[in-house]
Design goal:
By secondary structure, the protein is mainly alpha-helical. It has one domain. The protein contains nine helices and no strands. The radius of gyration is 21 Å and the shape is elongated.
Amino acid sequence: MAFLARLGAPVRGFLEFLGDQVHLVLRTLRYALSLRMDQLATVGGQTRLQIRFTGFDALWLVSGTALLLGAVTLIQAFSQLSGLGAENYIGALMVPIILRELGPLLTAMLVIGRSSTAIAAELGAMQLSGEVDALAVHGVNPYQYLLLPRWLGVLIAVFALVVFFDTTALAGGFLVARLKYGVTFGFFMDSVRQTLSNRDFVATLLKVLLFTGAITFHACHFGLRIRHSQTEIPQAVTKTVVSALVAIFLIDGLIAALFYF
């Protein structure tokens, strides 16, 4: 029995974690639908702060990463396809590698490193100082004031960052194609458009929605579980990063299998 208990402990812990995630999501959505008009300004203000931190403050990091990734992708492809008409495969390279996969995935990874860790640490500090309980005592719903703005802010910011990432990566790829083969902008974009499909847009939107849910609610889960000391905060941050990364990789694989298998 002791062996079975040890064997089942990780499964039980995982199921409890999933249950808590579902609880956080459903309660947040429920209280989002019950917002009063006088609460919208406060929630909107908190959401704007989250958008600024997650989106605007990360633009330089995202743009530099995307520009280099788009350029390196075509540099490596052209080096392997030299003499085989590599310029004719631009769309077939950029769309599946950058737009379908690496754009949403790397953007989510960068946001996990910056924003998910910050959310977990911030909520953990608020939990230790008693601010979360104080909000509830004063009639402020923590789901509306803490969780909802962070989720909405991350959702809007990640969507904008993915669009920005893809655009910048295409610009980096075009610069390489222009310098290497003299490809015109019209030819480059036609090649991308011929490979791009509506299925790619739907898959990307679904990834953004599910990625942002994992990023935000994993951070909220581990941040709000802090109870005793400051030493729990770095542990919560580490757990947030690991669990969120595993989640987005699993989600990415499932969506790839669903849409492209």
